[in-house]
Predict the 3D structure of the following.
Amino acid sequence: MSAVMRDALRASVIPGLAVVAAIALSSRLVAEFLGSAIFSLGHSPVSPVMIAVLAGIAVRNTIGVSPLQDKGLALATGTLLRCGLALVGLRLTLSSIGVLGLRALPVVAGCLAVAWLAIPRIARSLGLRGALVSLLTVGTSICGCTAVMAVAPVLKARAAETGYAVTIVVVIGLAGALLYPALAHTLFADAPAAAGVFLGTAIHDTSQVMGAALIYSDQYLAPEALEAATVTKLMRNLTLVLVVPVLAAMQARAGAAASGTGSLSLRKLVPGFVFAFVGLAALRSLGDVFGASSPAFVEHLWQPALALAAQLSELLLIVGMAGVGLNVELRDLRHVGWQPLAAGLIAALLLATTSLALISALL
């Protein structure tokens, strides 16, 4: 391959998108095969999202990923995944978001309170110090990698500390995304909304929550879980707007330089897909209101459009989660050390236990 062609491919998203598309398509075919040929069911008992994540991890850690695929993978795990998340907004109206939000609020608040009180103490008891303690706390309790990357500059965290926190959040959160749907169904089989609140509070990163919720929705035919998990996770994400300024003030009070924190705007702290999600929910609300007086509009335009959006959302989420799997480098765990990994695992189990206790008591 000539140098010119190699440079062109490196600048292109095609190689990376080709890999994630192949994994996503294969995952759907395997899921359909498992449902029809092996289990003789009309609906597969194994979600294509789970297959896509595991296949991505397997490819990354056996065959490997070429630098030529980096741009395509970034697009899949960034823009495409966020578009899939935003399109979930068309499943909900603003009133249903309000109802779900009010139900989830005490669970979210309780989990955040327990996390911020207990996780720093757990980390310090294992010998961890400095910015890594706060990074593990925000990564576990708020929104995974997004929270870690938003808070790291405020805390003046070293690159190694940020890398450790991201690795722990990705690996432990992804394990939860694959294991918690079955646990949630065992505990909340008759209450899919409660299962969604659990997934939305117990799993770290937004992409991991959505992957777990889609697994639950696919395997147990419970779209309510996906809706509840989405609203719950977005509520957790919004707490970054409060946490980052508070941490910056604490650093300044401690005498640390807070330069650079002034550039953190609302747009940087709240992902754009959150606004898109709410906007699409508003569109769904308006469409439903108009459709109440126009059956023809509902039958010929509105319902087909909503069905198409739901299919597109699921496809984009599968593609994005395949990309997430392709970004998991298991060898990175060797560089983390057992203390940060143990702190992250204990913190994750504490968050899940707290969530289950609050849901059982309040919902």
